[in-house]
Amino acid sequence: MWDGRSLRVMAEASFFFTNFPNDFQEKDLWRVFQHWGRVVDVFISRKLNARKKRFGFVKFHEVKDEYALEKQLDSIWIGTWKLQANKPKYRRQEKLLHIPRSPTLHRKVWKQKNQQCSYAQVVTGGKAGRVQKEEDVFLPHVRVNAETSFWLERCFIGKMLRASDVQKIKENFILGGFNSVRVRILGGMFVLLSSEEEGQIKRLIADNKEWFEGFFESIVPWDDPFAVSEKIVWFRCRGIPLALWSNQCFERIGALLGKLVEVDERTISKEVLEYARLSIRIPLAWR
User: Fold this and answer.
1) Could you give the CA distance from residue 211 to residue 131 in angstroms, rounded to a whole number?
2) Is residue 276 predicted with pLDDT exceeding 90?
3) Within this chain, do residues 53 and 23 fall inside the same structural domain, yes or no?
4) Which residue, 269, 250, 245, is CA-closest to 261?
5) 196 plus 266 within the same structural domain
């Protein structure tokens, strides 16, 4: 039984890092950082810091000791490069979860009665009463006046062939010298392509049609009524018997929620057997 004291929640922790090889990208640093914990995200800024060096941030999950992990990251060597890492200067205050004492529970004994009750009556204590209908459920509605977003007029909506290609698309734009092109995830298989230079994206699509067809199912100009109808979520499924550890099992699990998109590499290679990490496409119900 919990004694009512405050319990520190084991949460995610982010760290700032700099001084790493110039040819390293997010995926390269991900491989380095994963030796020190469960990596959630790695981000490298396009801008340089005050010392004209590249920098970025890495986020870990289930960190027990932030200070110990900070020292470990700050002692990493990548070839002749000594990585510099520390906790971000500005960070949110940690939240403490207060768990009150559990109240004494009294067991309720169900007794058979002569009168037959419906299932709804049983779960409400055996009393006959009005069953709540769908129209009784309160659904909040918010009315907002749409404002014209001029910056969206030069944007394009891209539907990707594979959700895992986002990083590749970003890298190709940078390697091609088109640093002004931004790729932002909208949800599901959709990304927003934008550029500060007017007409640049349209020219890129026309000059590199074959390349775009290798990554995108379609690319269309921004349309105000557009809304994402699905999202892709990574799930950790625990308790799967190893005898059932197969793509067929993963696909059927994905079908319970939506549709299986991708299986994590460490799940496929059986490097991690504590859980199966699955990417599942889930439909969003808009009314």
Assistant:
1) 58
2) yes
3) yes
4) 250
5) no
Q: What are phi and psi of 284, to 5 degrees?
A: -105, 130
Do 210 and 239 fall within a single domain?
no
Q: Read off the pTM.
A: 0.43
pLDDT digits (tens, 9 = 90+) for 189-225: 888 998 888 888 888 888 888 888 888 989 999 888 8
Q: In the chain, what is the straight-line distance between the N-terminal and C-terminal CA atoms, in Å?
A: 44
- What is the pLDDT, as a whole number, of residue 252? 92
- Specify whether the CB–CB gap between 58 and 42 falls below 8 A: yes
Provide the domain limits for residue 245.
Answer: 230-283
44: phi then psi, degrees, rounded to nearest 5: -115, 125
CA distance 225 to 219: 16
For 168-187, write each residue's pLDDT tens digit: 888 877 777 777 788 888 88
For 211-267, how does the pLDDT look when each residue is reduced to its tens digit (9 = 90+)? 888 889 899 998 888 888 888 888 999 999 999 999 999 999 999 988 898 899 999
CATH number at residue 33: 3.30.70.330
Cα dihedral sign, 228-206-212-30: negative
- Is 60:6 a contact under the CB 8 Å cutoff? no
Q: List the beta bridge partners of residue 185.
A: 191
Distance CA 8, CA 42 (A): 25
Residue pair 37/61 in contact by the 8 Å Cβ criterion = yes
Tokens of 98: 């207060």
